[in-house]
Amino acid sequence: MDDYELDEALRSALDRLALLADVSEALAGTLDEREGLERVWRLLTQRLVDWCAIDLLRDDDQVERVCAGTRNAGLEASRGDERIAWPATDPGSALTPARRGVRPVLLDPSGLRSLPREAPWERAFAAEAERRDVASVIVAPLRTRHEVLGAIVLGRFRSHPSFGDPELALVQDLAHRVGLALDNARLYAGSENISERLQRSMLPELPRIDGFTTAARYAPSGTAAQVGGDWYDMFSLPEGAGTALIVGDVVGHDLRAAVTMSQIRNMLRGIACDRQEPPESIVHRLDTAMGMLYPEISATCVYGVLRTEPEGGAGELDYTSAGHPPPLLVPRNGRARFLTSGHGPLLGVDPALPRTGAAAFLPAGSTLLLYTDGLVERRGEPLDHGLTRLRRNAAALTDASPEEVCDRLLTAQAPDTATTGDDVALLVIRLS
Question: DSSP 3-state assignment of 222?
């Protein structure tokens, strides 16, 4: 081998290593299955192949084409309902080693022509290769240690050099990395789903109470498969004393925060039902109990008692805030204002610190919003901007139902849960 051939071989080896590194970096940058595969598709079509398709095996033994396309035409849109049957492999098919997850397969034009046309996936595969004038193909299994997840298909046009053993070895390594990334993404998605279901199971169904309508939402954090400490609550107090309205946030984003949230919520329920006292006294009792039972936990909350008039539809809110964002009152005329009185320290700081209460008149037809800070916070932006945005957006929704107000505010506020790591709890009350 002369110096030129040595330089070319070294350059090719370095290019392959660079591609492997870039694919690994692209996969490490996301835990979303589709986004990760599309990143891999772009790298491969830019630097290695003319055509690439990535197929994933679903639970119904069918294959979904997640992404596909050529270097020149770009990524083609895929539809989740367009699937091809992936039945038991045919021992006579050249793709059997790939289908079973044993090894990648290299096919030339004669190998493509010899694929069994009675097998749906092979038939569709061969037809597409022929339509695109692909003459050299590598099919590599995407797998974990326990199962085959699908396949990655790479093709070169007839006018370009065919694949050889170096590309076959490279694709085998690539497919292994993609398979591991897929497995991690699915483990993450599964644990995230369980965490969100756990969180939602700890939140109550809102009761129906005469005099007003309500709606609530919980939006989980998008940064990790973790539960959080945000909660809302609403219940009738004994002897017609009114309706308790609560939104709170336990510091932390883990299972401990979620469990503590549930316990604090239940403690607050018990204290409120047992003691007919002003909101600031109820929250003071809660703070004292937390100091004894959870000395290392801090939390914020707004606790209010709403009483409505039998006639006329107006109401009176007695409330106190423990380090929490202020409630927002939106009258029917849209002149929204924050209820900033009755503000006190966080729960868990010092139970001896004084707490104050406040009262606010709620006109008939007005809307009251209680929320956690995830609704108004954005990374790199002052909190005042988020509060102003909330007031402006809520003022435009006086004719919307509480359900619509929740959904539209979550969209309009665009809480950046993917970067702030904060979940959102939102409680909306509309007086008759």
Answer: coil
Side-chain-side CA neighbours of 333 within 13 Å: the count stands at 4
Euclidean distance between CA atoms 101 and 92, whole angstroms: 16
The token pair at 278 is 């002003």
- Map tokens 């002897």 to a residue: 239
Question: Which residue is associated with the tokens 């609403």?
Answer: 234
Q: What does the alpha-carbon distance between residue 76 and residue 53 come to, in Å, rounded to a whole number?
A: 10
Give the Cα separation of 304 and 313 in Å (integer).
18
CA distances from residue 316 to 140, 255, 295, 306 in whole angstroms, order as listed:
68, 37, 34, 6
Per-residue CA distances from 310 to 206, 214, 318, 363, 432 (Å): 21, 18, 18, 13, 11
3-state secondary structure of 357: coil
Res 421: pLDDT: 54
Contact between 272 and 286 under an 8 Å Cβ cutoff? The reply is: no
| Closest by CA position to 228, among listed 421, 27, 35, 5 | 421
Q: How many other C-beta atoms are found inside a 10 Å radius of the C-beta of residue 263?
A: 17
Check: CB of residue 393 under 8 Å from CB of residue 203.
no
| pLDDT tens-digit series, residues 36-83 | 888 988 999 888 889 998 988 887 678 888 888 888 877 776 655 567
State how far the Cα of 166 lies from the Cα of 170, in Å rounded to an integer.
6
Enter the tokens of residue 222.
């998008």
Least confident of 104-108, 298-302, 354-358: 104-108
Cα–Cα distance for residue pair 20/29, rounded to 1 Å: 14
Alpha-carbon distance of 115 to 111, in angstroms, equals 7
Q: Residue 398 contacts by C-beta under 8 Å, 6 or more apart in sequence?
A: 330, 331, 332, 333, 334, 365, 367
Give the separation between CA 400 and CA 81, rounded to whole angstroms: 35
Structure-derived torsion over alpha carbons of residues 162, 40, 185, 77, reported in degrees to the nearest 10: -100
Q: Where are the beta strands (DSSP E) in 144-242?
A: 148-157, 212-219, 230-236
Instruction: State the pTM of this model.
Output: 0.60
Q: Which pair of tokens denotes residue 280?
A: 């600031």
92-106 residue pLDDT tens: 677 778 877 788 989
Reported in sequence order, the residue ranges of 71-147 that DSSP labels E, i.e. its strands, are 74-76, 83-85, 105-107, 134-143
Distance, in Å, from the CA atom of 340 to the CA atom of 62, rounded to the nearest integer, reads 57
CB atoms within 10 A of CB 389: 18
> Which among 107, 188, 118, 174 is positioned nearest to 141, based on CA atoms?
174
Separation between Cα atoms, residue 277 and residue 258, nearest integer Å: 28
Dist. CA 330–CA 307, nearest whole Å = 17
